[in-house]
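hey so u asked for the seq, here:
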Amino acid sequence: MFFGKFKSSPIDFLIVGLGNPGKKYAATRHNAGFMAVEALAEKLGVKLDRVKFRAFCGKGRIGDRHVLLMMPQTYMNLSGEAVVQAMRFYKLKPKQVLVIFDDTSLPVGAVRIRRKGSDGGQKGMRSIISLSGSEEFPRIKIGIGEKPRPEYDLSDWVLSRFTKEELQKVAEAVDNAAQAACMIVQDDIDGAMNLYSK
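ran it, structure tokens below
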């Protein structure tokens, strides 16, 4: 199986949503990962009110797996600092860390699941890969759309807010990402890909 049971740690799986902290960045395109983890926390009845590893965290269960939900508060480009700290504390391997983040190469609301891979230009994922020394992280990517014009600044684009029409698509995408996360944690990444990868 792609994922096995890891009983040497009180946490079997770390589920990380990437984004930027603070009201200024709430509901921006770059915070799609935060939105997905918040949707998952609501689904599991988990409160993300514990501050540890420079992140908002909450413990819960998915089936027989003990999970830690995490939203790093380091700002996107330093996400790896929080993630690697938690990995070391719980002695987790990269394949026990599911990362959820935004992707400008996918249409708004699309979901793409991968077992591992490069950062694809996403700076939060780049930080995690760089500090951990591994690309073996399963990930769920949520489409936020390409910048509207070639000359449009990418930073301005990812920090812009979704339109009302887009928010409906994103709401469905983060719910699908939360459902997919539950399947991945329970060893069914293939099923998650078949159901939710578009």
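Residues 13-196 form a domain with the Rossmann fold fold (CATH 3.40.50.1470). The longest strand covers residues 55-62.
lmk if thats what u needed
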